[in-house]
Write the structure tokens for this entry.
Amino acid sequence: MSDVIRIRDLAWRAGKEFAIRDLSMTVPSGAIYGFLGPNGSGKTTTIRLMLGMLTPADGTIEVLGHAVPKFAHRALARIGYVPERLHLYQSLTVDESIRYHRAFFPGFDDAEAERLRRHFSLREDQPIGRLSKGESGKLMMMLALAQRPELLVLDEPTDGLDPVIRREVLSALVEYVEVQKATVFISSHLVHEQERICDWVGVMDGGRMVAELPMQEFRSGIKRLRVANAPGTMDAAPFALLSREALNPQLDEWVVRGWQPEMREWFGRSGAEVRDVYDLDLEDSFVELLRGARATTIANGAN
Amino acid sequence: MFNQILLTQFKWTRITLASISVVVFLAPAAAWRLGGSLGQPGASAIISGFSGIGPVLAMFAILGSFMLVVQPWQMDHAARHVYALSLPIKWSAYVSLRFAAGAVTLLVPTVALWLGSLLVLSMLDLPETLRGYPGALALRFFIAALLTHAATFLLQYIAGKKAGIVVLLVLVCVALGMILLEATGNRAVSEQIGRFLVEWPGPLSVFAMDWKLIDV
């Protein structure tokens, strides 16, 4: 399976406040890749770097086999992009916007655009500036899907939409992916929404990639453990410790990533015992991942 | 692709375009009336009137083409240029197409001025010694507008929303330079620079030289 997006050691800086640091990411072909992270973590900036809208200070970006930003225009011809905010010209009508968009994308499917326009109940003569947030979201999704792209890049596509419209937009997306076998890169901070549709997850925080793993692993590999007589050091631990907290002098609570039942032996070797193992739901896993990453960053900064 | 960019250019600037076109279409007639009110008959009235209307035409060429750049740029800027940057076309190609579309729209007031000039000339019986130059006047208007369009476009797309500050800085530098030259007794240098700019073939000569519809 080839990779549709491959980013290595990406760096970018905006003033003193915000930076993308050492970001590497791989999106396999055909994946629905959920790009998770809290607000302000750098998701939109990463997407803009990925599409050639910003120039990286360091690192390499390859999208659909094209080096970005140098050949971003070639990659963009095969990408359907839906940004977090309406980016279309507000003075145009829906119909004018379709015609404008079509002129730039040779593979634009008129019949599909018309079908989606009707499906989304968008009137041809509606001025874009007067569309509601939901209608704007549907129009952007419609244009992106009618391009028949190999890769869809969606930046918070359902943020602020009501549940009915959100479902309409997501079902149109899923239908397209099923038929076209396209790759989807979808950024969001809505963890449960990602859980429903994604098969890969990348988690970003503070301009860094905290974790990148298959959804199945994300869903089942992060556990909360109750550990009696917990060891002080983590020598050769077969899992990643995200956080630890002493409940009392004899009992610790650990949150670990990559947990497998046979790893109990590792505790046994140091005289500790795993009393209980709890499953975390996706949102808790996400929060623990972020907490672990932030603790590591602080510890590295202190050293 | 260019057709669509041109269509948006027309849509965004249609009010400015229509206003300038009406003004420049009426300019030759206004010159005739202005000269006539000063007691000059026929062709002499137009010659006399153009001494007042000519600078107005130059001003409209500058102001109009400035607006024709700024309005489309603001449309892109409203979405922080995200749409333009997400299109599968090099940024340089996109900017070139926008520039070309702006240049094409300048033809509308140019044609309006040409038609207005032809109309006025058709109502005159020119003496043997005089000739009307409606085409040359319209071409001059187009070149002046195109020059302004190019300069404004370059500034707007390089400096972005800081374009106003850049213009202000340039004007301050020019003013300071002139004051310095005057203060150090180098007035001849500033005059030489001025002449270089506004006398043919200086870059601003198209604005400064006489705008005439009728000449010997």
About this structure: The two ends of chain A are 40 Å apart (CA to CA). The longest strand of chain A covers residues 3-14. Chain A touches chain B at residues 51-53, 73-74, 76-77, 81, 83, 85-92, 96, 99-100, 103-105 (CB under 8 Å). The CA atoms of residues 39 and 189 of chain A lie 7 Å apart.
